[in-house]
Amino acid sequence: MRKTLREIAELVGGEVVGDESLVITGVSGIKEAHEGDITFLANPKYSPLVDKTLASAIITGRDVENVPKPIIRTDNPSLAFTKLISSFTPSEVTHPKGIHPSAVVGKNVKLGKDVAIGPYTVIEEGVSLGDKTVIYAGCYIGQNTKIGSQTLIYPNVSIRERVTIGERVIIHSGTVIGSDGFGFVTVEGKHHKIPQLGIVIIEDDVEIGANAAIDRARFEKTVIGKGTKIDNLVHIAHNVTIGENSLIVAQVGISGSTEIGRNVVLAGQVGIVGHIKIGDNVIVMAQSGVSKSVPADTAVWGYPAKPQDVAKRVNACVQNLPKLYEKVEELKKKIEELENKLKK
C-alpha cells in the first residue's frame, strides 16, 4: 500500500510539516523503521531516536518542533498510528463461519444472524447469541447465558450459566467467567462451601485477556463496566464491581465485594483486599497492596499502598537504612569511648 503524507494526515486528522507529497510504503516502530516507513513518537523518552530512526516520516504530538524530517502533528500520536496501521495492514485473520458439525447446540438456543460456532464447542440449553457473534473451537457456554452481538470469543473459553455478556466484547483463550466465588465457612477445622448463587455481567466493549478468572457473585452480581480492558492472568472475585473504562493490568487480584470506580488503572501485580472502595480516576502503581479504600483522583503505590509522594519518601528512607545503620554503629562506638574515659 502506498499513501502520501497528505493522505495519511487526512486519515488521522493531522497536520503535515514538510513534504506533503512524500510517499509512504510501510509502518513500523521508531527503532525498527526503514526508509519509506512512517513511525510515531508518543513517549518523550524515545525523543533521542528521532535523529537516529531510518523512518521517512514521524507522527508526533502537536507541540513537536525542529524535527529533521517530515512529520504529521496530531492530538494523540498513539491513536493516530493505530488508525494508520489498520489502514496499511488490514487483518488477515479469518474467523469461523457458520456452525461446525461437531458443535453441540442445546435446546431453546437463540442464534442471531451470521453467528459462528467453532468445532467441539458446547452451547447449553437456553443460550442466546447476538448477531455476528463468533465463538471459536472448544468453548463452553452454560445454560441461559446471554451474549450480545459482534462479540468475539477465542478458543477454550468457559462461560458458566446465567452470565450476561454485552456487545462487541472480546474474550481471549483460557478465560473462565462465572466460576464459583471463593466462599467457605470454617467449623471445627472443616471448610464448608457457601453456595454462590449470583451472576456475572460483562457490559459492552469490554476486552478480557487470556487465562483471566471472573467469579460469579454469592448473591446479586459481579459487574465489569462498559469499555473496561482486562489483561491476562487477572482474578476478579465474587461481587466485585468495576466501573466504565478502567484498565486492569496483568496478574492483578481483586478480592470479593470491592467497588472500583470509573477510569481506574490497576497496574501489574496489584493486590486489593475485599470490601473496600477505589474511587474514580485512581491509579494504583505496579505491585502495590491496597488494604483500605482510596479516594478519587489519587495515585497510590507500595505495600500497604500510600499516596505516591508519601510512598516515594518512605522508599527513599528505606534505601538509606544501610548508611543509617553504619552511622548509628559509629555513634555507639564514640559513646562507648566517652563512657570509658569518664569512668577513668
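That was protein one. Protein two is written in the same sequence-then-structure order:
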Amino acid sequence: MKASILKHHLLPVFGEMRPDAIKMHAIEILKADLLAKGLSRKRVNNILACLGKMLRYAHEIELIENVPRVKLLKVPQQWFDFLTFEELSRLVEAMKDDPERLALALLGAEAGLRQGETMALEWGDVDLLAGLLTVRRSSWKGVIGTPKSGRERKVPLTGRLRAALKAVKHLKSELVLCHQDGKPLTQSAIEAALRFGCKRAGLRSIGSHVLRHTFCSHLAMRGAAPKAIQELVGHSTLTMTLRYMHLAPSALTEAIGLLNFGQPVGSALSGSC
C-alpha cells in the first residue's frame, strides 16, 4: 500500500523537489488536490501519514533540518458492521461440515486476523499444542510483508478455532489455508467462501473485515480491557480500539461503582435532613 501511495500520489508531486523544499504550504496544496479528486478523508490521511513518516526519516538521517507539520484531516466516527453472538453461532453451524471455510471464518472472528494475515498464515506460526498462533506476516496483492502494525503479535486460540485448525491440517503447502494445489488463496476466493457461508446461514453477505470487527466487538461486550484488545488485534493506537468500547454496556456503571468502594451504604445522604 505504501509503495502505491508513493508511486501514485507523492512522487508525481514531490519527485523533483529537494526534501528540504517540502514545506507546510506544499503539503496543504497536496491535501486540497487529493480531496478535489474525490478521495475519502481517510485515504487522504493515509497518504499524509506516509509523507510524514518519510519526512521524519529524512530528518533522522540529516537530509532536512526541520520536519514540516503534516496536519491530518478530521474524520467523523465511522459505523462498522459486526456479527452478533447469535449470528456468529449461525455462521459456525452452517460451516461445521466445511472445515476450511470454518477455519477461515474463525481466524477472523475469534483471532482477529486481517484478510492478508489469514492469507499469509503458515503452519510454523501455529502451535496447536500450546493453543497459540503468532501473526508474523501479511499478504498484499501477492507480496508478503509485515503485519500492518509493523510488528508480530501472539493470539491465544479459542477451543473451536483450535479444533478447526486441527481439522484442516495438511501437507499441501506451508500455508494454513490454500487451494488444492497448494497455491495461496486470493482475495476473491476468500470473499466467495464467506458469501457462501453467509448464504447457507441465512445471513447478510459480509467481508472478512466484518469478522475482525466481530472479534473486537465481542471482546468489548464481554468486558475485555481496551489495551488487551489492542494487543490482540495489532492496532497501532489505542484510539482505534476505543471505537468498540461503547458496546460494553456495563462499563460506565462499573466505573462509577469504583467510587462506592469502601463507602458505607447511605453515606451520601447522611446529615442532609
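The chain has two domains: 2-60, 85-221. Keep this in mind for the problem set.
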